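Continuing the batch. This is chain 6 of the set; chains 1 through 5 are on the previous pages. Same settings as before, nothing changed between runs. Recording input and output for traceability.
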Amino acid sequence: MLDDEEEEIHVPINNDLERRIADAFEVFDHAGNKTVDVREVATIVRALGCCPTEAEIQEILMVVENPESPGSVHLANFLPHISQIITEHKYQPASPAQLLEAFQVLDNEGKGFLTKERISTLMTQDGEPFTQDELDEMLEIAIDPHTQTVPYEYYINQLMLD
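Output for chain 6:
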């Protein structure tokens, strides 16, 4: 039997969106107690199709982190906030046209591709840098194994298939 402090909070699931959010959350709820470590929130939010910056993740954490148990997030706090974010279409990924335009800006010679070295430098040193794991994951899909370049129109099409 649970004591008063550990009493389970019932979290109603009212629609398909909330079910999708709860399902993604539960993947990281290793103890099965409707809580996750704050370090998992970015992964969960991004798995739900949102693309917030690290600063925006910190804003989310300020709202959803459990004040009685710092370092953890309860589904009861997470669900309504993330449901609202998704419903309001916040943190939407870039469109294919926006991605193409960004790649074309980086491809100042108009070759239709970026070298592995150039994309690696850009992704780890400029803007919001990728970790090595994130870079490796991206390059696994983006790099043409024969030319060792990123043919960006093909890469964008691959992203859109997911």
